[in-house]
Every structure is written in C-alpha cells, then in structure tokens.
Amino acid sequence: MDLLTSNPIASLAAVTTAAAYLDAKFCFSRDLREIRQGRDFGRRLGQRIQQLGDVCSMYGIFDKYRGKDGDDAIWFEGRTISYGELKRDVDRLAGLLHARGVAAGDFVAVFTSNSPEMAIVILAISKLGAVAALINTNLRHTTLAHSLNICTPVLIISTPDLAAHIDSNVPHLTLNLSSFDGTATTTTSTITPIGPGDLKAASFTSLPPAKRTLSDGALLIYTSGTTGLPKACFIKNMQLCLTSTPVPADHDNRAKYFPLRTYSPLPLFHGTAIFGGLTYSVGNGGTLCLARKFSASNYFKDATLSRANCVLYIGELCRYLLASSPSPYDRAHAITRAYGNGLRGDIWDPFKTRFGINEIREFYRSTEGLAKFDNFGDGAWGAGKLGFAGPLRRWFENMTFIVKFDTDTQLPIRDPKTGFCVKIRPGEEGEVIGRVVNRATMSNYLRDDGATEKKLIRDVFEKGDLFQRMGDLVVLERDGWVRFHDRIGDTFRWKGENVSAGEVRDHISAIQGVLDAIVFGIKLASYDGQAGAACIVLKSQDPSARESFIRSLHSNLVFKGVPSYAIPRLVRITDSPLLA
C-alpha cells in the first residue's frame, strides 16, 4: 500500500510541504492578502465619500476627520499649531478671501514656501470651493509667468520671501503669520501684506463651506510633460478622498501607527508632500511636521524633536542623508516607517540599517496617474522594487497593467490578429497603463485637451475600454517583483523633478549665437535619476565667442526661468552637426 494512503499524518505533511513550496514559489498568500486589503480599502473609501456628503473637498476632509481642538495639527521649527488654532485661522482667511471676491471654481495662485501659512492658504481656498494652483517656487521669469497664465488666477497669494519674483497685475496678497518675521515685506499697488491682525478682523462665523463633488477641481500641480513648458495637472476631489483614506497597513494596526506624526521637508507643491503629507495628516487627525526646506544635517534632528513616527522621502533625498556625517540624532528618533518613491536597491538596506527604520513604504504613482504599485514591507527581497504582482494578483487585477511596448513607434504593441494590446509575461518589460473608470473624476491637464488625450489609449483589451499611459517602462521579474526600467520620450528625472529635455533645448536654442542644440538625461554613478546634458553648436567658431557663451549660459537660462534642477550639469560645445 502506498505510504501516503496508509499514513494520514505523512500525507498531511506532504500536502503541507507542497503547499508551502508552491506559496514560496508563487506567493499566493501575499497576493490573496493584497487582494483582500484592496477590497477592504475600497469599502472604506466608499464610506468616507458617503460621510463627506456634499462637501467632498480638502476642507471637508479636514473638518470631518481633524483631531481634537487641543491636538497638534502642525509642527514647524519647534512650535506647534493645534487643530483648534488651525481651524480658526483657516476660517478667518477664508472669510478674508471671500470678502475679496474669491468664489467656488476660481483659481488662486499659491506661490509660498513651506510653512504653516501655506497649509492655511490651501485649506482656506478649499473652503470656498476655489482651486489652489500650487506653483513650483523654483520657477522664475518665463516659466513662472507661463504657470500663472495657465490658470488665469483671480488672486495670487505668496509668502514675503517670494513675493518679489511675481510680476503680474493680478491682485496679490503676501501672508505672514509669524513664519517670516524678519523678512522684508514687499508692498506695491498690487501687493497687499496680510498679517495676524488682518485675520483677526476677518468675519468667518457665518460662512459655510462650499458644496463640492468628487469631479470638482481641488488643486493644480505643475509637472513637466514630454515637450513644452510646465503643464498644470487638474486634480479632482476624488484624488483627495483616495489619498486621505487610511492605507491597509495603518488601518489594520492602528495601535502601532496612530496617532500619526509625519515629518516632511518636501515642498508642498510636490505631489508626495501634498498627498502623503498634508492630505493624509488632516484626513486622519494627524500632525504634519513640516520643514521649511530639506537639510541633510537637520533631517533626523527635526524628525526627533518633532516626535515624528513617519517620514516622507524621494530617492535622491535618501542618498543625501546617507552621504551626511553621522549624527547623534540618526537613531534617536521614533520613526517606524518611511513613505515615498524612488529609493534605489543599492541604498535601500544601508538607509534602513544606518537610521534604524524598519519599514519602507515605496509607492509608484504620478501626480495625474491612475496606475499604481505599492511595496510595503520590511523584507530585503523587495529592495528597490516598485511592487509585487504574483500570478493571482495578475489574474484578478482590473486597474493596473503592463503591456508590451514598441521602442520604434513609442506605442504599445497590438496583436495583429485581434488589434488589442498584449500583456507582458514574467521576465519581460513593458509600459504601465491604468484603467480609466470615470473621465469626470480623472485628473487632466488644464486647458490642454491635446496633452490629456495624448496620454489616453483606447480599445486596449476590448472594444470601448479606456486606459491612461504612464510613460514608464518597467520590468516584471520572473519572481513577480516589478522594477523601474526607464522613462518614455524625452523627459528625465533629476533631484525629484521631471525635466522636459525639449523645453530646456528650446530655451538654449533661443539664446543668441546658438545654431543647434540637443538635451538629454545621462546616468551618473552614485546619483539617482539622470543629470541633464547638452550638446550645443554655435554659429561662430571664434574661441572668444565660445568662452563668452559658456560664461553666460547659466545666467541666461536662469533669466529665462529655467529652474535650477533643469539646468544641464554637463555641457559640450561641438563643431559637428547634431543629427540626433
């Protein structure tokens, strides 16, 4: 008689061993857990939307889920602002803006440095149902003017350190509630300083929050496209509801992860900071521990003094921290997890080990994107990866897919027999796409239907379906892990920002004396992303003209408004025609 049929215990052991082997090989249990968590998250999101009712907005989220009046809402440079104080100042500023004519649907340009003032401005604008256009504070001159012109704001709000860079006839408030004491305040015919006394005089008690739906606009976040000047991503309230809902890891272990205190030196005009910082904090009664700007030497000191238990990062930031000198604050903090994107495999474990952070929460998203991957865990096997997609996850997945890509046509490959796109197999690379379920709640490019349409692809797996292209090539490894491979088109990423090579090339080509130019990103050892490189042909081959051009190139680009992260780090002047 067969041993397994005569010995039930041996039979059970064999089945258990086989099941364990199959699970280790195909990660069924991980896939099942993530599928369950995804469904649970969907239910909680639906409940949140119901609870918000007809005030689906940043202010609505803040008002509904904020902490108690005495709880810390914001920590900034050693001082705290309670939820009671934050709501008072938000409501007062909303009253002041309302008196100046700001109404639902209007755009208000926000050109402010990281500070409590910036958070107050964003929430006050939201209370009125207006849209905060979060302008990158690195922009100057042409690109700054372009960003303002896109949104045609009814009002500009700045902080005193930045006000002088705005050259516009639009009414302009500069706000300082104490974070910019000592900074000279600019006053002109169009610029009006606002201080604590002005807020105290503002009427706010009878002003209700504007009614807003999931498809109404919430924010503008500016990003570089594949060509041209910065594009304004029109973020809908649906995205704020999504990013304020507790993620499964937090919801399933509230005793460990709450109350939430998130430290971030990332600028609030950046998607990671506005969604993972401000929105997630106010949506869960947490504390946003905000730094004015990033400092490698002060990062963990601030995180320790603010009692943060979560930090935000982008990959380049982690590399700078590892390159900094050892500090007594490196492990004096209470951080349990780091949340962000772009942490590369070569520094993943060194970062965790040196700073004693057990859990890395790597996510893959774009500001306007629908597709996503998450790599939440504490194991070394996923170091540097975007996320995991085992066979069960791929079988049940309905939103995020990876399809084969043609590098010659720069388009997804279609099966010649069916006309539909082809999903990649393990071991292959392809482009990430995300299903569009509702065009009304999907983020789009403001007043640029062509750019929005260019990112969409139809009839992908069946007639009538609609997907959004992410513009990234990734590899689905044979063990199910997904890793980033490259950007599609002429954009490259440097210092946490997407840079349009075409835009930088156009600026260089417009400089007097330039015959031709090409710009591209190049990978440098020990740096994340790609540094900008430029090859330039001058009209004159005179050595003195070449020397003069090189000396003035940086200042010319700064004058044209090219942000510092987009200025090429490597420049070659050549006599040869540029054929690529």
Provide keyphrases for this structure:
Rossmann fold, 19 helices, single chain, 24% strand, 580 residues, alpha/beta, eight-stranded mixed sheet, 33% helix
3D structure, described in words:
One of its GO terms (molecular function) is long-chain fatty acid-CoA ligase activity. InterPro entries: AMP-bd_C_sf, AMP-binding_CS, AMP-dep_synth/lig_dom, ANL_N_sf. There is one protein chain. The chain has five domains: 3-39; 53-293, ANL, N-terminal domain (Rossmann fold, 3-Layer(aba) Sandwich); 294-368 and 377-384, 3-Layer(aba) Sandwich (Rossmann fold), CATH 3.40.50; 388-485, Roll (Luciferase, domain 3); 491-573, GMP Synthetase, Chain A, domain 3 (2-Layer Sandwich). The longest helix has 25 residues, at 28-52. The chain is built from 19 helices and 29 strands. It starts with a helix and ends in a 7-residue tail after the last strand. The model has no long low-confidence stretch (mean pLDDT 91). By secondary structure, the protein is α/β, with parallel strands linked by helices. Helices cover 33% and strands 24% of the residues.
What's the quick description here?
One of its GO terms (biological process) is long-chain fatty acid import into cell. The protein has 580 residues and is α/β, with parallel strands linked by helices. The model has no long low-confidence stretch (mean pLDDT 91).
